[in-house]
Amino acid sequence: MDETNVAENESNRSPWSLKLSSSISTPLAPCVQCCQFDGILLQEPVSAMDFRTQEKVLISDVLNALMGMQGTYVRLQNAQRNMDGSVSDQKVFKLVPGFHPSLADIASEIVLMGNHLIAIQAFVNEYSAFEYGRVNNALCAAIRNLCREYLLLVTQCERQSSVDTGFSLQTLRLYTLPTAQSLSHLYSLTCDLILETKLAQKRNTELDLSNIDNILERLNEGNGITDVFNNPPGKRSICKGGRVLRFLSQRIEQYAGDPGIRELLTFIFHESSKPYTEMLNYWIHRGVIEDPYEEFMIKAHRGITAINIDDDYTDELWEKRYTIQDELVPLQLEPLKDKVLLAGKYLNVVRECYSSMDKPWNADNISESLWPTTFDNDVFMDAFLKAYGYANESLLQVLKSTQSLYAHLYSLKHYFFLDKSDFFTSFLDIAGHELRKNASQISVSRLQSQLELSLRQPGTLTLLDPNKEYVGVEINQTSLLDWLLQIVSINGLEETNLAREPVLWLEDNSIQHAEVGDIDKSGSRRDGSRPPASKEIDGFHAMQLTYRVPFPLSLILSRKATIRYQLLFRFLLMLRHNEMQLESTWIHFTKQAIWNQISSSRRVEVWKKHIFQLRVRMLFLVRQLTYYCTAEVIEPNWTKFMEGLEKARTVDVLMQKHVDFLDTCLKECMLTNSKMLKVLSKLLTTCTMFASYTSTFTRSLTLIQKGIADTGSLDEARMAKMEDVLRCYDENYSHNLKVFLDACSYFASIETAALLSLVMRLTT
């Protein structure tokens, strides 16, 4: 063979072909000349290759590495030790030593893409499992599509290298540089998601067993105590669902200035959010939660049903039936999360109402094919607002028509505001003996029987009222003043800032501390504690009505709304009781002959006249207060409230108008102002004490008249004492009335103008 043919054959020889050594004189000659790198026998040492051959070898092996496969001179090895000393199980590509430094630098830079690809594929393989949830599955599908496009680029580069003799490592680097940046960020994204999962596992391990609600829920699901405490739920520890979308949204915000990375992340977010958007659509359009892997922002508690809500009349049951999981709320839905919750809850209410009536119910007419596929654009916002409006209107229609909401509201007005309350006068007559007892000695069952008897008396308006079955009676051993002052103090409504406070002053924290449901018949709270110590009160000051309606009416006539009704009722009952006592005083005077006799002593007649005048003044005050609260506060606001209900198009508006009506009545009835409460309480207490002192006045008058008849002269000492007692009542009443009028005038100018009419009538 001539030298030309030898040179041609040498140039065409494959870089990974064997090179026979004929210069080694051993028994096994000719043999393969080999070198070793990390335990791998190499076919040809790098040092034996020229620059061009090294580049060709590297191009071939680097292309293999870009597809995740190791070659002859680019091998897969274990990664270096972590900072904590542990050895990572991740494989990375490494070049065989000996290549030209310029080639090695370029190849090492390109090979990083292969390292990233291997890690990304490992992430995709793991997170494609069903327990990682549908969002992670969609995320992996999106990444898989990106990897497919990436491999297509590698294939094109491989094709180009085979047809272009001038194809170099630098050319390959330039071709893959834009993709390398995207792949690097994709790798960083997967690493951070894995880190998020580890952090979530750590948080759940620390917090899950300290959350009593989670423990009870898992026990209700059929798990044993051992499983609950020894095996925390692993699937809840995975970064999935809304948490993944929240993470992606934050990532998009971080790279807002990089159009390429932002476009990549936006694509991944759109693809990943499709399953979540599907769950969201089912919730806001159907009221159904399709969430087998606990990824959705709304969580349904299985143990709470409409039956439970009827049995245990509390707002908390309905509020806890469906709850928001804040960590699973994507950033785009953060401002809408409360409306998202309500939209589905309202549809659930409508569905249950129709199912209880054995009637078919059709959701909105929007086809599932027209539902938006993502929630980060205006299309979803339009669709959501329509769905939310439909849910509101549907529930509103159910409440107004099938649930007779208006009839219940009128019944509440009759019973709690004593409107056309002929039954209540009869009830007070029947139950008067029981109500005069101390609150702790009253039999609630006897009061309930007497109330039912009064409601069913022939000739009363309540006889034909079907809603009287929902009315009950209970005893609250905390006086109205103490209860109101407790609520005011909890909300921080002081005299200095009352004018700046919003109308909605009775919030959850005050309900929690002052809720009637926390007080049983013995006066003890459910947690075993006692209410703040106060003076023993009688039944007239401790009795309050209840109104327990079934679900879904309890959404509108909730416990919080009922407490507002009870506050107003107890105040009106206090005024009615004062009026009855003062009227009874006059009846007592007319029935006692001693009061009808004209005394020979002018001082006695003046004393009697002052008593009559003081009683009339007190009765005038009580009647004016009653008239003001009913005719000038409740009735006008009730009319506005009913007009507002006619215009209401959503349940939210209806609920807000209802609460606003009650809060306005409480405010204008002076029940939200601590100073007014204290002054008014002193004023009414003076009237009550004066009325209860009637028999003592009668005994004193009898004794003084008997002394005149026996001795012919007036007992000056006894008469002076009688005049001092009367003067004490008069001065106390006059002083408290003046303070009350001054307070009314002041707060009428800065807070409630309605008080001006009361001041004018009391001063004329």
Count of distinct structural domains: 3
Rounded average pLDDT:
80
Number of strands: 10
Please tell me what the overall shape is: elongated
Level-1 CATH class name of the largest domain? Mainly Alpha
GO biological process, one term: microtubule nucleation
Pfam families: GCP_C_terminal, GCP_N_terminal
InterPro entries: GCP, GCP_C, GCP_C_sf, GCP_N
Domain Gamma tubulin complex component C-terminal: 405-762
Molecular structure report:
With 764 residues, the chain is mainly alpha-helical. It contains 28 helices and 10 strands. It has 3 domains: 3-133 and 147-163, no CATH class; 273-402, no CATH class; 407-763, Up-down Bundle (Four Helix Bundle (Hemerythrin (Met), subunit A)). The protein has a two-stranded antiparallel sheet with strand order 1-2. A hairpin with a 2-residue loop joins strand 3 and strand 4 (40-42). Helix 21 (559-591) runs parallel beside helix 25 (674-692) and helix 23 runs antiparallel to helix 28. Mean pLDDT is 80; it is low at 1-41, 81-87, 231-235 and 492-533.
